[in-house]
Amino acid sequence: MAIIVQKFGGSSVANAERIQRVARRAAEAAAGGNQVAVVVSAMGDTTDDLIDLASQLNPTPPSREMDMLLSTGEQQSIALLAMALHAMGKKAISLTGAQAGYQTDGVYSRAKILKIDSQRVLDELNKGNIVIVAGFQGVGENGEITTLGRGGSDTSAVALAIALNADLCEIYTDVDGVYTADPRIIKTAWKIPEISYDEMLEMAVLGALVLQPRSVELAKQHNIPLHVRSSFNHSQGTIVKEVAPMQKDLEKELIVCGVAHDLHVLKTTIFGIPDRPGVSALIFGLLAAEGVNVDMIIQSGTREDKQDISFTCGRDEKDKVAKIAAQVVKELDAQSYLLEDNIAKISVVGAGMMTHPGVAAIMFKTLADIDCNILMIATSEIKISCIIDETKINEAAIALHKAFHLDR
Amino acid sequence: MAIIVQKFGGSSVANAERIQRVARRAAEAAAGGNQVAVVVSAMGDTTDDLIDLASQLNPTPPSREMDMLLSTGEQQSIALLAMALHAMGKKAISLTGAQAGYQTDGVYSRAKILKIDSQRVLDELNKGNIVIVAGFQGVGENGEITTLGRGGSDTSAVALAIALNADLCEIYTDVDGVYTADPRIIKTAWKIPEISYDEMLEMAVLGALVLQPRSVELAKQHNIPLHVRSSFNHSQGTIVKEVAPMQKDLEKELIVCGVAHDLHVLKTTIFGIPDRPGVSALIFGLLAAEGVNVDMIIQSGTREDKQDISFTCGRDEKDKVAKIAAQVVKELDAQSYLLEDNIAKISVVGAGMMTHPGVAAIMFKTLADIDCNILMIATSEIKISCIIDETKINEAAIALHKAFHLDR
Asked: From B43, which residue of chain A is nearest by alpha-carbon distance?
């Protein structure tokens, strides 16, 4: 008997009708002779609505109380899904994160799962139940409710799959898999049948927001295959696993598996910083202390003992970053700072580039051919990212998709 | 330093503005040098909305899952109230029923509190926190979430006051106390400054839905004084305690402390039941098994080995009762049954009637004087109730309020 973990996101359980669809999906898997555990997120906009409500009462609500508040969203979903399964005559039981044995490090709002004591889940599976588990949450010491941070439900599902030694972890979402590029922009984009963890990680981080990067890392560490698929149809999605046949495509010169873009980018430059040790440590120490996740960093060559430092992060960090930049300019006696949010990031991803030189050259030439100026560059072993003007992003994505022979 | 338990119902926390008002209320009590624990219900219509949602998925949702669902309502309120207090610069912490140590008998949907392990609450109070506790909920064995049933938050508050050995338990509601009659109907009704537990119990049960009867019973057992007052103003409400000075009023001939009415009454009569032992046991056993709370019972004199049995219960039990009545008629070979919901109950309550004969006579004469027919009568030591025609209820309440010298 196989153990399957299914995860359904908020849009998949946004209303009663969709919850019934999820219930049918879980029941089908169980009817196939499998033991099924289902991890669900909060219904549709529930989390956003609760955040709105909280902000009316406190512009900076304490994170402990935010976790107390937000964890109710998933608790509602699991109860409703269990009810829907009962209505179909299926045995089902809902479990909160605490009841399902999720133990976290106790850090509010962005807890890490330390371990899952899966005995209760196993007991309920062995009683013939479909077990419905609240995603996104767990408890720290003393039974304190902690959430895993936005999108943490993917991580909840993968962690449960690991704890149960599940045969498969299915991630149901509102898209039907991972595409070579955003199909809304690039009509020739196609669904990748299989992709490696590393490629998925780069695709996920870069704005193809199908899977939370944390969950992909976790799956990679424990070699749990993920099946990313749509909750709205039964078509095969994308399998994320260790050695993906995309590597076979290398022989057909498919060096790049996808083009990802991200409009949610803020570029900050601090000009005229005195060139002395510890400057970068100060700047990025301040950013880290405020929880700003920095992506790309460029330190320009010095001119007359002065240097410029540029970095990118998410646009929603704008207020924090402006404050820190002003502080840095003052403390370091720098010249000035500039925040730019009319930019975007375009990236090509592929394990193939490890063995194929010249990918960067093709990328830069392709962008040059469409008169697209490159503002920043960052590379990893399987990814090259460029910051470009926001208005050029669609044109760049289309050109790169074609240049790397991804068009079908 | 006094310990005060405050309880706020759903209408008192129905929106952000009202939650802020509750926060100010709690903060005022704490600023007065008291340790303050606050028990809150779910916001406004949250519980009803969740029940609606559940019924879309399952007409008879399993009670375990209903408790899982409904307990989120209070969890949201406590988090939001804690945030509001933080925004005012006050130390506050929210605790779920489980965290606050509420241990129940584990019966879903209508759990009884077995005990409160109040150590966590005391620890948090001693740290200088205003402690916000989720009403209506607790956990059974194995950490299973159970709710106390509708209106259970009053009971949560009284139980916490007992566990903390609190000096006072304030029940905040949307009316400013207990009145001698419904002031919407009887303009001359006035707020009773102090009332005994027993009188309050009769008033509460009879439709002056200010306090849950269970909570009054609990307060009586442990001699905890309750202060029923409005969350919308600062005026003194009604104190419920053991020996109320209403008894002093006896000397001023105030035998009756209030007139209560209840429109939510269903009368059922089963006609022509063969007169043999066990008939009542069968009927009321079936009703109990279905959870129907029977109020008044009348068994009429026999005629030719046949008898009629009438009883009243809440109108929302109509479907259940109709089914049971049909079954009884069939099983006992009775003649027929009749359900009437065009009736209402009017009652006079007062500890004074224990020592003053003739209250019933005054009541019946008063009703006769306004041509009001009495369909059923039930009495306790401190209460007389009559079932009358629904259309006569206001007139009867006004007449009785006057007859027992309650008009001011």
From this structure: A53
